[in-house]
Amino acid sequence: MPAHSRYIDDDSDLEYEDTLEELALLAGTLLLGVQDFQHRRSENRNPSRRYLRRPQLLSNPRRNTPWQVLYESRDDRAYITTMGIDCATFDYVLHNGFAQRWNSTTIPRADTSRNGMPRLGRRSLTAAGALGLIYHYLTSAMPDTALQQIFALVPTTISRYRTFALRALCDTLRELPEARIAWWSATECEEDANLIMVRHPLLAGAMGGIDGMNIATAESDDPEIENSTYNGWLHGHFTSSVLVFSPTGIRS
After folding, report:
1. Is there a contact between 157 and 124 (Cβ–Cβ < 8 Å)?
2. Which of 63, 88, 215, 219 has its CA 20 to 30 Å from the CA of residue 248?
3. How many CB atoms within 10 Å of residue 180?
4. Backbone phi, then psi, for 35, in 5-degree steps?
């Protein structure tokens, strides 16, 4: 074989080996990337480190839990700090519709009939506990793990009770006169809509404006007032308001 042919073959072999090494390196990089992606997706779908299991919780949700201590204290300051309402308001909501709904309705589950009788003795929370769970959830930014520790419940129970109790609370508040939201009459709405269209011709059917406002509030020396103005979401003292305006300047 001529010398120059042998040199050409040697160069071809070296190029071929280099190509194989590059392909192997590329394949390894892609494989690591796929494995990392699958690992991250698995963690997102099954966040096993983000909840507590039964061995890490108190054994009986109806006895000696932080919630039971709080509920039985009957302390307005403690109620306002954790749930945003005092004892009288809590009892009023509880005994004017919420407890009746909690005690008379079956909590939806895949293995139970919606038409069956509720088994109150098998529930982890009483009606008061369920209402406390909802107010803790609504008035703070705490994660579910904190709710688990306070009420000694596993994640599936927290989720199921929260969904059911939110609906019960919503239905209850709709029937309470103090929680009622009343709009002005149909005639007044039509008059206001016409006034708005004079200024904004393309804005048909509008009857007013609405806005929310958190007004910074000075801390009071009175512990009761100081606790009532503390906003857990904003980590400060605010007076929160929802303002509704009609085009005639009337505010409610």
Report:
1. yes
2. 215
3. 9
4. -65, -40
